[in-house]
């Protein structure tokens, strides 16, 4: 991944942006609502499992969720489980001092609620096999987390801007697909947190564009072209992501239209007139990639509709 500035320039940029971080942190704290995971879980549905308490073993018929919703919830939860790795990654990039450190710790505390509430819901409602889920968690976390989008500060801010929005979309659509009002309300609450996190990072990158536009556009382009969801290391992720995409929970069209494009519009990437040669080169690469992604999304939608039509014909 190409780096466009050295450590000194990165440090200067972080110093210049610290007042923005402080301002955005204050805004975030004024908008973030206190909530409690235990209030979103239908505890009355719970009963003992087999094991030391000699309860009822889990079996597939106990789950009321569709395969698509169940796979999406598992991916969402296992992604949230890797929080220690994400905390280490952003703390390494942003540091632990001043407003930067305060934000890192606040973000981590808020994110921790997401894994708590989703796991409690899945366990209490017996929506998934808890033994398989725990084994998947162990396997996924043992892999750790390593960023694939470049290690510079700007790459990090660009990535989390897109990733938080992608996570918001995935949570909301999973809730809708679940067919369970309790699950939908729970994931809407989680998605509201993700939205505020996205706004923080998106506004921070917007400010970075005013300080070093060429380096920032290069970072945005690199991240968009190499973007992977943080849970891509989950065992069976490709199979699960295909199921999720075919269900319309998260697919190429949503990634293009509801994640990448809104951020690029907010930053006025394709309208800016202040780019130098390097920024222009990066923007041309970005435009070419977005065009190709739009084409790929259209092809996927067309194939999906054909599959659905064939399935409907067989059922008819």
From TrEMBL:
It comes from the Bacteria. Its cofactor is Fe(2+). The keyword Lyase does not apply. This is Acyl-ACP desaturase. Belongs to the fatty acid desaturase type 2 family. Keywords: Fatty acid biosynthesis, Fatty acid metabolism, Iron, Lipid biosynthesis, Lipid metabolism, Metal-binding, Oxidoreductase. Homodimer. InterPro entries: Fatty_acid_desaturase-2 (IPR005067), Ferritin-like_SF (IPR009078), RNR-like (IPR012348). The lineage of its organism: Bacteria, Bacillati, Actinomycetota, Actinomycetes, Streptosporangiales. The keyword Coiled coil does not apply. It holds the Pfam family FA_desaturase_2. It comes from Actinomadura miaoliensis. PANTHER family: ACYL- ACYL-CARRIER-PROTEIN DESATURASE-RELATED (PTHR31155), STEAROYL-[ACYL-CARRIER-PROTEIN] 9-DESATURASE 7, CHLOROPLASTIC (PTHR31155:SF9).
